[in-house]
Amino acid sequence: MKNVLSQKGLILQLFNNAVASIFDYVRAPELETFWIEREQELDPYLGEFLFPSEQQLGMEITLLKGQTGAPVALRPSAFDAQAIPRNRPGFEQMLVDMIYFKESKFIYEKDRQQLLQIISSGNQRQIDIILRRIFDDITELVRAAALQREIMRMTLLTSGTTTVVGNGQNHFVDYGMPELNKGNAAVDWSDHTNANPIEDIRKAQEIITLETGIKPTRLILNSTNLSHLRLNKIINRSIAVFGDGQIIMNDSNIRSFLQSELGVTEVIVYDKLYRDDNSGTRANRKFIPDDVVVLVPPGNLGRTVFGTTPEEADLMNSNVANVAIVDTGVAITTSEKVDPVNVDTKVSMICLPTFDAMHHCYIMTVKGIQGVSLSIDLDVSPTGYAQGLDMTVAQLKEALDAKGVEYVKSATKAELEALLLGVE
Questions:
Q1: Do the strands 304-306 and 53-55 form a parallel or antiparallel pair, or are they unpaired?
Q2: Sign of CA dihedral 384, 385, 388, 393
Q3: C-beta separation of 101 from 349 below 8 A
Q4: Predicted pLDDT of residue 205
Q5: Residue 250 — pLDDT band, cuts 50, 70, 90?
Q6: 396 dihedral zone (left: phi>0; alpha: psi -120 to 50; beta)
Q7: Which region among 70-84, 281-295, 371-385 has the lowest average model confidence (pLDDT)?
Q8: Domain boundary among 314, 341, 360
Q9: N or C: which end of the chain has fewer CB atoms below 10 A?
């Protein structure tokens, strides 16, 4: 009888008639127990709440794209009359293969030798120390699987697509988000004087409400954009009016103001980072980038769907390997390797998120907007127009088009104002 330590110090008893070896200690069931307890210490990802997990057989998933507008009332009918059939809204069915992820780890030779020596000594405390290090290293793959799911979910939430690149694989899934559900703020939110985030959000809510009958009442952003809201002059003036000028601006004031003014019931600030190993610099990236905020309705936005891995389907009940399932559909597989003698631990999953509430969401670009304020110098203006006009480049172009002015190579502020007023 030998013992294996779980994450919180609980002892798992191993019974066998032979002398215990590395194969007795590093097994999928023990790794499963260790991960379940280890996971309790980790901060959950936002996507775990917005896109809850479920599993299905196979590896294909059906995504439905089509009309999801406001509800239509039941039509009246006379008694004894035949019911009038209602046409189904048009939709497109898209069958997509979920993406297969798989990586493995071996136990380092130094750790393996230490473990074997300590096993023979029977010193349980030292066995626990070595096993904790081995188990934590191996379950890094399970953490990596959880990270990959969050990258897919947050990429989908902030772009309407999801992309997985790495290990010679390149997967891109376009969920067909309508252009109506994407847009730009009128002015970059970092322009705290001229931007009007309240009207930007109100306009987005109106677009979705008119199209679907459902108002998005949750705002997802990172702390950079929450700071832009806090520093915005228009919002500050509005809140100060209600507080007789005695308000000290903070995040709580912003949340209350958004709720009273726009019916935003929840402001979700998500600042988690991940390291992008597929970029040349392996830079840290934000799940919610600085240039995007997302308006979403109450409830779940979709699902994180797991397929059945080959390890679960074919090895679960075999004598070839030990298999345990964690996090709904992630397979941990351990098998004995003869040459060199070692334990091969493999973590695999088949997974893809759905975006069932896509038509009720709005993705807003709030940074790097084309058509920035013309309070910039003439020579750096994106279109070469003069400085000082209280309008965006896009608004200026529309106004000049309405006056029949096709192109202005260079002009002073007074000349442009004269053109807009129709002065010769």
A1: parallel
A2: negative
A3: yes
A4: 97
A5: confident
A6: alpha
A7: 371-385
A8: 360
A9: C
CA 2 to chain centre: 43
What pLDDT score was predicted for residue 9?
44
pLDDT band at 265 (very low <50, low <70, confident <90, very high): very high
| Percentage, residues of the chain above pLDDT 70 | 67
Range of the domain at 412: 370-424
How confident is the model at residue 246, as a pLDDT?
Answer: 61
Residue with tokens 């559900």: 181
Q: Which residues contact 376 (CB under 8 A, 6 or more apart)?
A: 387
pLDDT at residue 155 greater than cutoff 90 = yes
Residue 321 placed within a domain: yes
Q: Does residue 256 lie within any of the structural domains?
A: no
- Pair (375, 351) in one structural domain: no
Query: Range with the lowest mean pLDDT among 70-74, 170-174, 207-211?
Result: 70-74
pLDDT tier at 266, thresholds 50, 70, 90:
very high
Domain shared by 113 and 47, yes or no: yes
One domain for residues 32 and 152: yes
The SS3 call for residue 111 is helix
pLDDT at residue number 190? 93
Cα 367 to Cα 185: distance, rounded to the nearest angstrom: 8
Q: Note whether 35 and 122 are same-domain residues.
A: yes
Query: What distance in Å separates the CA atoms of residue 200 and residue 215, rounded to the nearest whole number?
Result: 14
For the chain, how many structural domains are there in total? 2
In this structure, the answer to whether residues 308 and 421 fall within a common structural domain is no
The CATH number given to whatever domain includes residue 127 is 3.15.30
Give pTM, 2 decimals: 0.74
Q: Using N-to-C axis directions, what is the helix angle for 251-262 and 233-242, rounded to 10°?
A: 80
* In-domain check, residue 141: yes
CA gap 222, 367 in Å, rounded:
13
Q: Are both 23 and 115 inside the same structural domain?
A: yes
Query: DSSP of 382-424, one letter per residue?
Result: TT-PPS-EEEEHHHHHHHHHHTT----SS--HHHHHHHHHT--
Domain end (from 360, 394, 412): 360
Q: Are residues 157 and 59 in the same domain?
A: yes
In a domain, 106, yes or no: yes
Distances (CA, A) of 211 to 90, 205, 218, 424: 15, 10, 18, 44
